[in-house]
Design brief:
The radius of gyration is 25 Å and the shape is elongated. A hairpin with a 5-residue loop joins strand 2 and strand 3. The chain is 61% helix and 10% strand. It is of the alpha+beta class. A four-stranded mixed beta sheet has the order 1-4-3-2, with helices on one face. It has two domains: 196 residues, Cation efflux protein transmembrane domain (Alpha-lytic protease prodomain-like, Up-down Bundle), CATH 1.20.1510.10; 74 residues, Cation efflux protein, cytoplasmic domain (Alpha-Beta Plaits, 2-Layer Sandwich).
């Protein structure tokens, strides 16, 4: 016998997708304008650092557009073919964002090594002022996504912008020191340090995104605690075939078979379990199958135990 209970809310209060549409629009506009300014002055000042950072920021414009599009796709209604809609696009976007950050970091590192071997003089005053503008633009954009850290997709956008602000700060600091000391090799050394910071801050996003793509249990959910809750429910003798996975970067689903020897379909029990799973673990889509545990008709998935 089968009984299902579905909740489409969430156990925590999170900003709705529409609240980030404006943030994405502002972020894309600001960063597109800054890329144009940074590239123009990079050519004028002969600064490879500014040109490289302009390319970095251009990749972030694409990343913002990708994350924005993925967020909107989560609102697409389910169909007969895609019964969860397009929610998983947020997971894919967060993974691509993480890979982009790692890839861009590799490009910066390559450029930094090249400049260590072959330092070239640049107009440091121009570099400092343009990079200072970059700090303001990227910090302002990052703050737009500060309250969305529960969503890996929004978190990816935030990390992109925060990393960019760090890159611009490093360029300003190195520019000031080079301006007063003439030590050209400091600029690429600061670049390598920034690469280390970016990779360190991005690794968690990459790991979590990859795990979600593989249907791993979200990192903030204790599987053992969920299993204990289900096993201790009134009338439940055993639990098997338990699965917990994320249907998007903000929504989690659960399915399980509960052995209930009395064979009574208890709607109150199902409702209470769904509500407790939602409030304690943020699991919003719950499907529970009740079984009597009849040895003459064993469940083919009975061996799937944790």
């Amino acid at each position: 016998m089968h009984a299902a209970h579905h909740e489409h809310g969430h156990g925590h209060v999170h900003p709705p997708p529409d609240s980030f549409s404006r943030a994405f629009a502002i972020g894309v506009a600001l960063n597109t304008a800054f890329v144009a300014v940074e590239a123009l002055f990079g050519f004028w000042a002969g600064s490879l650092a500014l040109l490289a950072d302009a390319g970095h920021n251009l990749s972030d414009v694409f990343a913002l557009l990708l994350a924005w599009g993925a967020m909107r796709l989560t609102e697409v209604h389910p169909t007969a073919r895609r019964t969860y809609g397009l929610r998983r696009s947020t997971q894919l976007a967060s993974l691509i964002n993480a890979l982009l950050l790692i890839g861009v970091s590799g490009g910066i590192a390559w450029e930094a090594v090249g400049r260590l071997l072959h330092p070239a003089p640049v107009n440091e005053t121009t570099v400092i002022w343009v990079a200072a503008i970059g700090i303001a633009v990227n910090t302002a954009t990052a703050l737009l996504f500060m309250r969305g850290q529960h969503d890996l997709n929004i978190r990816g956008a935030f990390l992109h912008m925060a990393a960019d602000a760090g890159v611009s700060l490093g360029v300003v600091v190195s520019g000031v020191i080079v301006l007063f000391t003439g030590w050209d090799r400091l600029d690429p050394l600061i670049g390598l340090l920034i690469v280390g910071v970016i990779v360190y801050s991005t690794w968690g996003l990459l790991r979590d995104s990859f795990n979600l793509i593989l249907d791993a249990v979200p990192p903030d959910i204790d599987t053992a605690a969920v299993l204990e809750l289900l096993r201790n429910a009134p009338g439940i003798e055993e639990v098997h075939d338990l699965h917990i996975w994320a249907t998007s970067t903000t929504q989690t689903a659960l399915t399980a078979h509960l052995v209930k020897p009395d064979g009574v379909i208890d709607d109150a029990l199902l409702t209470n379990l769904a509500e407790e799973l939602k409030s304690r673990f943020g699991i919003t889509h719950v499907t529970l199958q009740l079984e009597r545990g009849d040895s003459a008709h064993p469940c083919p998935l009975d061996a799937c135990r944790l």
